[in-house]
Amino acid sequence: MSTWELKEKSCGELTCVVENETWSNAKTKAFAKLAKNVEVPGFRKGQAPKKIVEKHLNRNSVLLEAVELVANDVLMEGVKEHSLEVIAQP
Fold it and tell me: pLDDT at residue 27 above 90?
């Protein structure tokens, strides 16, 4: 679901809503991706239990990675929904 508002000339604002399930899946994938590179003393790289890895990962890093995972797909859906022609990198 998205909304489109024309601002001026060829500029506008596309607001997209990400469904809860999609966002939850993105956060899970982001955590797994980042957890592979976390080094925890006493464990092989990427092999520490989730609870311990959570203490070593910055929550913002996980959220930013999740945004990167879903942003392009959601953007393309919004562009198609409103039949927009993208002329520059959003």
Answer: yes
